[in-house]
Design brief:
alpha+beta; 7-stranded mixed beta barrel; extended
């Protein structure tokens, strides 16, 4: 089944317009639970309640309000909010191009795939190939679902991706967080840390080797409950990390890595030995003729 488009827009690249469609690039795969009434097992409904009038409020009676002072609100209708978006909500107007390496990942919020809409195939291809060759990404503004976002468009996998981003005033100052400035490193600790990092390093990221083990455990338990099987829950034991000298911890980590590397060839060799048949018996069978062959040879003599 082809992916479902979330909406359409137009990338404005100078005087070039590129009609595009947006597609969801990823979705969280966590496990969600519904809230049930313990007495009867039915799903509970969420209702909006007004404590002043002491009544449940229907959704048709709800309006949006912005709190400009304590318990004081300015009201907005959906039409007023929609009018503020205007035509800009459909236009992704590129402001500048920058190297991707200059953009801190902390600004990334969500990712979408961009595909060409009808009539936009050639300019889409032109922009993709040009950005790939120049090694640049584009920055623009785009209104999505009533929220104006800073967006980054980058070439990837022979197409374009769009990342919604946080504005600078939405990112908290890291300077407010302590970073262990008062700590003093011992001689040799940095070198050992670098060695351990090197031991754990690979040339590329392989996302397929990581799975959500918690989700798998929850779904396995769900299946057992659906099948009516008895379930025994065991609380996992919490292993508290023993506080030891940092230098010793680094040395033990490196020794453990060296031990696991030494065991790996032994395990492979043992597995190969058990999978092969001993060659001695096969050679004996080939060298020693059977009884029928001996009688045939005696008859010839």
């Amino acid at each position: 089944m082809p992916p479902h488009s979330l909406g359409s827009g137009t990338i404005s690249f100078g005087l070039v317009s590129i009609p595009v469609k947006l597609y969801t690039a990823a979705s969280a795969g966590g496990v969600s639970f519904n809230q049930l009434h313990a007495k009867c097992g039915n799903r509970l409904r969420q209702q909006m309640f007004c404590p002043v009038d002491n009544e449940v409020v229907d959704r048709s009676q709800i309006v949006k309000g912005y709190e400009f002072a304590k318990d004081q609100y300015v009201r907005f209708t959906d039409e007023e909010i929609k009018s503020l978006e205007g035509e800009a909500s459909k236009v992704i107007d590129i402001a500048e191009f920058v190297p991707l390496s200059t953009v801190d990942p902390i600004y990334f919020e969500k990712t979408y795939y961009l595909g060409p809409d009808k009539g936009g195939e050639k300019p889409y291809r032109l922009l993709t190939d040009a950005m790939t060759k120049m090694e640049r990404v584009a920055l623009a503004k785009y209104v999505m679902r009533g929220k104006e976002s800073l967006v980054l468009i980058r070439p990837s996998q022979h197409g374009l991706m769009l990342h919604t981003m946080y504005f600078a005033d939405e990112v908290r100052d890291f300077g407010e967080v302590g970073k262990g400035e008062s700590a003093t490193l011992k001689e040799g600790e940095l070198g050992l840390a670098e060695r351990l990092i090197q031991e754990l390093s690979h040339d590329e990221f392989k996302p397929q080797q990581y799975q959500d083990d918690y989700r798998e455990r929850v779904l396995d338990l769900v299946n057992l409950k659906v099948e009516g099987k008895e379930v025994t829950t065991v609380t996992p034991e919490v292993h508290r990390a023993q506080v030891i000298d940092l230098m010793d911890a680094l040395k033990q980590s490196l020794a453990k890595r060296a031990g696991s590397r030494a065991e790996e060839p032994e395990r492979k060799g043992a597995a190969a030995a058990t999978s092969k048949k001993p060659p001695v018996k096969a050679e004996k069978r080939a060298a020693a003729p059977d009884k029928t062959e001996k009688k045939a040879q005696a008859g010839k003599k």
